[in-house]
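Cross-check.
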Amino acid sequence: MKNTRHKTQSRRLKGPKLISGKLKRKSISNLKGQSMLLTIVLVIFILIAGFAFLASTIKPERNEEYNKIFTSNLLTSLLATDTGYTDFPDKCKTLADILICAHDTPSFKCGSELCSDTVSKVDLYLSKSLISRPSLDYYLKYGAKEIGNKVIVNKEFTIQQRTRITKGSSSIDMALYIGDK
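Predicted model, tokenized:
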């Protein structure tokens, strides 16, 4: 029997080793939890750094270069816009043709309207083009005629785009101003 007791005692001696094995498992699971927490914190820092970088690359809306390009493209597309009149394509096809017609022969008819009256299409086109930018207004001067809000001409941050429309022997100097209301 003494031998069996000895075996039991040896089992008891092995017991604390098993307990230390459990402790090792707990410490390993604690390390897994800590590493998971560290991973989550690192991912959050990476996301914050990414958002900070993206936010720093965004330029404010008052970007003068963008407004210059916007004004230039608006004037170019305005002059090239098809009016839909097919009666006299040489005088009524584009808005540029209508502006020349209104300047040279205001009593000429494009469809059922006089050239001088069809200039309202230019006003409509510019108004609709600026719907996406409600803080902006326009002023257009062609020849001696004017359309839009003249007050913006002398305001700060107003962009001016000039061009000359030439058709045959007639030409008109044009200036488009885009600025804050």
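Confidence is low (pLDDT under 50) at residues 13-19. The radius of gyration is 39 Å. Passed to J.P. for a second look.
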